[in-house]
Amino acid sequence: MVIDMNETRLKTVAQLRAFFNGTLAVEFQPIGEDSLRYEHIAAVLRRLGYRRLKRGDKGVVLRYLERTTGYSRQQLTRLVRRGLEGEVLAKRYAPPRVGFRRKFTPADVALLAETRCMARCPAPRQNTSCSAALALLALRQLVQYVSRLVYSTVDPGSAEDLR
User: Fold this and answer.
1) 105, 84 contact by CB (below 8 A)
2) Has this prediction a pTM greater than 0.85?
3) Phi-psi region of 89 (alpha: psi -120 to 50; beta: other; left: phi over 0)
4) Confidence of residue 62 (pLDDT cuts 50, 70, 90)
5) Any idea what the Cα angle at residue 135 is, between residues 133 and 140, rounded to 5°?
6) What 8-state DSSP symbol labels residue 92?
């Protein structure tokens, strides 16, 4: 069962303590998006006047935020410090504009799949390793490739000397 809670009526630390006493068995599911969690943290800090609270009361507010947001105590301490310094709470990081480059091309993946079929290796989901068979097959293919390369660069007249 999902219940949306209107927690804006909790305006004092005493109300937060009473809330904790009455909701020990309740499990909170944090909000999905970080931006909404940051807004919630900033709203709670403003509503309760976090700056002017005593040390013990600040601990109660942090525990409340810990339960309602799902963040750790250390993360909340950093976010609260940033909020008190006047910084707008938002993610500081973003994904890179140019993500990771692919090491293998789709052609490489297809070739590996073909090699795997040639070695008659089981599917990877069966948790069996056939790396020795693949290594042997790759070595054979390398030898064939090198021999073709050598024979293609050698003068046809002197190819008889290599045999």
Assistant:
1) no
2) no
3) beta
4) very high
5) 95
6) S
